[in-house]
Automatic annotation (TrEMBL):
Gene3D superfamilies: Oxidoreductase, molybdopterin-binding domain (3.90.420.10)
Record protein name field: Membrane protein
InterPro entries: Mopterin_OxRdtase_euk, OxRdtase_Mopterin-bd_dom, OxRdtase_Mopterin-bd_sf
Keywords: Membrane, Transmembrane, Transmembrane helix
Organism, scientific name: Streptomyces asoensis
Transmembrane region(s): 21-49, 87-107, 128-147, 159-177
Classification lineage: Bacteria, Bacillati, Actinomycetota, Actinomycetes, Kitasatosporales
Domain Oxidoreductase molybdopterin-binding: 281-418
Region (Disordered) residue spans: 192-216
Length: 421
């Protein structure tokens, strides 16, 4: 007779004494809160790009009804994107051990036979596959984008966007079905020193309990402590990328480590060499800014730009990869003053900004009228008391409060006000 205990479809195959409704419920409730925050901050990040403003900003043009929530991204508070995206990336990395432990705790369910005992059970199994697959896909693509400048096949923006909706839909359905049972399990067992695996509060928890468990080598609370310690370690070695004073602690972040010195001694995403911008293109005697608007086109060389009224703004740089800087002191010409040069007095319109860079998703970017009108929005020529460096966008770059870093276009060559679409 064949020994079915050697097959993962047999309950006897799974011998760990740690699995059970209490262990799974604790992890599930942590993920319930964490994944919800990730989803909300992820949607906020997508809205920050103003994708419905212009095709050059929209990296997921076929989003359809999934873009129902989009709104005009504000400029206040000026650290808004720094906060939302810092939370999104740091929390996502911190939750990796919790997610892996949760998947490990429920893996027997993926092999349970029969595949479907009823229509309702079949729908639950399908939602579980979407949940597990979506979780692995979202976390994997997110980490690859952060750590390796995205090496996963295809475009990060649509893949991560669509994947997030599939994952969260399955997650929400699963939460509706399982959260009441998870809360009951915790309430029933919270007074016990060591939660027992037997007699779960509902039938769905029974299949998590090993019928013939091995001898325990660690308690369930000890296992949770191990998972929590892993999350804490990831947090401690990642969160510092959003704080200048702690950047040296961000050992697992690509933009960790100490900032270099000098006026331009703060983090960058892409260098001039990477963007294909050469010194010949940015020489003072050859570079010109072309500004187009209602009354025609104006060409400004560096000398004329420096003779326009200059203003100072203290603003951070915040990247979709989760890293950010503290407020840097930028000095340059207000965007609304440039709009006025080409006939847009009063309320300035939207603007398309074009860079000298040869390649990259945001070599062209659109800014909303509220971003142009903000007195802190500059075409910056200086930072922290010195001229821009080549890697920070010399001879001129855009800096806008609360905008994602990629919308703060470097190596600006042309600005077209009005008729953004």
């Amino acid at each position: 007779m064949r020994d079915d205990s050697r097959l993962p479809t047999s309950p006897a195959f799974w011998r760990s004494p740690l699995r059970g409704p209490w262990f799974t419920s604790v992890l599930g409730l942590v993920l319930l809160v964490g994944v919800t925050v990730l989803f909300v901050t992820g949607l906020a990040s997508y809205a920050a790009y103003n994708p419905d403003l212009s095709p050059v900003n929209d990296k997921t043009p076929d989003k359809g009804i999934l873009g129902f929530y989009l709104f005009a991204w504000p400029t206040d508070p000026h650290w808004l994107y720094r906060l939302t995206q810092g939370v999104h990336v740091t929390l996502g990395i911190t939750l990796v051990p919790v997610l892996l432990a949760k998947l490990w705790s429920v893996v027997p369910k993926l092999f349970a036979l029969p595949p479907a005992r009823s229509l309702a059970h079949a729908l639950e199994r399908i939602s579980l596959l979407l949940l597990v697959g979506g979780a692995l896909f979202e976390f994997t693509t997110g980490v690859l984008n952060i750590q390796l400048d995205y090496v996963f096949p295809g475009s990060f923006y649509p893949l991560h966007f669509y994947g997030a909706w599939v994952f969260f839909a399955a997650f929400a359905a699963h939460a509706v079905l399982k959260t009441p049972a998870a809360v009951r399990n915790l309430r029933r067992l919270r007074a016990e020193d060591e939660p027992a695996p037997a007699a779960p509060a509902d039938e769905t928890g029974r299949e998590l309990v090993a019928p013939s468990p091995d001898a325990p080598t660690v308690s369930r609370r000890g296992a949770l402590g191990f998972v929590g310690g892993g999350s804490l370690l990831l947090f401690a070695t990642t969160a510092g990328q959003s704080f200048d004073a702690l950047r040296g602690t961000a050992l697992l972040a690509p933009h960790g480590g100490a900032d270099p010195g000098g006026p331009g001694g703060f983090q960058i995403n892409k260098t001039a060499a990477y963007a294909g911008v050469t010194a010949a293109q940015t020489r003072e005697d050859t570079w010109q800014l072309v500004v187009t608007g209602r009354t025609g086109t104006v060409r400004l060389d560096l000398d004329r730009l420096h003779r326009l009224p200059l203003h100072t703004s203290s603003l951070p740089i915040a990247c979709v990869e989760g890293w950010s800087t503290s407020d840097q002191r930028w000095r340059g010409v207000r965007l609304r003053d440039l709009a006025a040069l080409v006939g847009h007095d009063g309320d300035p319109p939207d603007v398309i900004v074009e860079s000298l860079q040869l390649h990259g998703a945001f070599r062209h970017a659109a800014l909303r009228a509220n971003q142009v009108a903000d007195p802190r929005s500059l075409l910056a020529l200086y930072v922290n008391g010195g001229p821009l460096t080549a890697d920070h966008g010399y001879p001129a770059r855009v800096i806008v409060p609360a905008a994602p870093g990629v919308l703060n276009t470097k190596w600006v060559a042309r600005m077209t006000f009005g008729e953004v679409r």
